[in-house]
């Protein structure tokens, strides 16, 4: 099942949701990994990094053995492997416990990146093709979540992974996050249906600007001037691209902007709603709650049209089999690409993650232009490149700052 990122944007997708996890240990020197400062809450990585700083003579092979996969693809520390004595036969035992992922981490991570990009591109292509003959984004958004929820329920039923219990207190923490997730998802799809996929992703490149503004003016965190300056190319690039975009309309533009705001809202509440639950289960519960949030507007805004002619027109254009097949696969690819995104983000450092997110957006924009043959003006192309370059610069600076903060904490 998908772990809790979020879904599109520089860290839009599911990244904000990953912050829901609380470090399992209570060591203040390490647990101060500073979520409030934008730190990475992935406990397995934090513990391994602290071990490296505490003992720089620690053999690399043992460091690799200090983390193994558990259910959901999450990294966890293995104290026994890290602290095995040099007694006779200990090396043999340690090597026996190291799986393929620990032996070849770069290969596994590369595979995750490839599948993340591949599934994301396929999702965007199928999604847009559906809107070309079935322009009902609220209903399609419900289908996305419905397929994912069914996937989660089946996975729970077979115990892969085991369902984590939830109570009213946890539910209260997750509801605001799920509401932001639902609104951001629906408005993204409204934009995808209204304008070219490449243009929606260009607008969504503004999400770091909204995140920075919310961090400083709502959460009270001081954003360095260098970060604000790095956002200037993003704003300028999006403005240039918007002014000359051939497929521009206000519905698509405003919906993409609302999506940015919604995912920022989700990110804020993700920082506040720290719960001790693995990200796979967190995202499953958020998907279920978000589905209930999305159903009422879909019925109210599109229900009458769907019953009168929406379904009939779609079936008449592509046939019943293809229509149902497209809806199923777009939902499945939506869920799976979010799952791969979460698994990938949990395996890499913030800087690698930041670069990966930028490259993902480049892939999606590039492939959508090729597949759909979207004509873009020279100014739009230049604006898009400027915006993506600004996102890359912002992500690089922010990731370096986060790594330096964590390194300073670990060496104290």
From TrEMBL:
<dbReference type="GO" id="GO:0015605">
    <property type="term" value="F:organophosphate ester transmembrane transporter activity"/>
</dbReference>
<protein>
    <recommendedName>
        <fullName>Sugar phosphate transporter domain-containing protein</fullName>
    </recommendedName>
</protein>
<keyword id="KW-0150">Chloroplast</keyword>
<dbReference type="Pfam" id="PF03151">
    <property type="entry name" value="TPT"/>
</dbReference>
<dbReference type="GO" id="GO:0031969">
    <property type="term" value="C:chloroplast membrane"/>
</dbReference>
<dbReference type="InterPro" id="IPR004696">
    <property type="entry name" value="Tpt_PEP_transl"/>
</dbReference>
<feature type="transmembrane region" description="Helical">
    <location>
        <begin position="380"/>
        <end position="397"/>
    </location>
</feature>
<dbReference type="InterPro" id="IPR050186">
    <property type="entry name" value="TPT_transporter"/>
</dbReference>
<keyword id="KW-0934">Plastid</keyword>
<feature type="transmembrane region" description="Helical">
    <location>
        <begin position="178"/>
        <end position="199"/>
    </location>
</feature>
<keyword id="KW-0813">Transport</keyword>
<feature type="transmembrane region" description="Helical">
    <location>
        <begin position="225"/>
        <end position="244"/>
    </location>
</feature>
<keyword id="KW-0809">Transit peptide</keyword>
<dbReference type="GO" id="GO:0046943">
    <property type="term" value="F:carboxylic acid transmembrane transporter activity"/>
</dbReference>
<dbReference type="InterPro" id="IPR037185">
    <property type="entry name" value="EmrE-like"/>
</dbReference>
<dbReference type="GO" id="GO:0015718">
    <property type="term" value="P:monocarboxylic acid transport"/>
</dbReference>
<feature type="transmembrane region" description="Helical">
    <location>
        <begin position="250"/>
        <end position="269"/>
    </location>
</feature>
<feature type="domain" description="Sugar phosphate transporter">
    <location>
        <begin position="108"/>
        <end position="395"/>
    </location>
</feature>
<feature type="transmembrane region" description="Helical">
    <location>
        <begin position="138"/>
        <end position="158"/>
    </location>
</feature>
<keyword id="KW-0812">Transmembrane</keyword>
<keyword id="KW-0472">Membrane</keyword>
<feature type="transmembrane region" description="Helical">
    <location>
        <begin position="281"/>
        <end position="300"/>
    </location>
</feature>
<keyword id="KW-1133">Transmembrane helix</keyword>
<dbReference type="InterPro" id="IPR004853">
    <property type="entry name" value="Sugar_P_trans_dom"/>
</dbReference>
<feature type="transmembrane region" description="Helical">
    <location>
        <begin position="104"/>
        <end position="126"/>
    </location>
</feature>
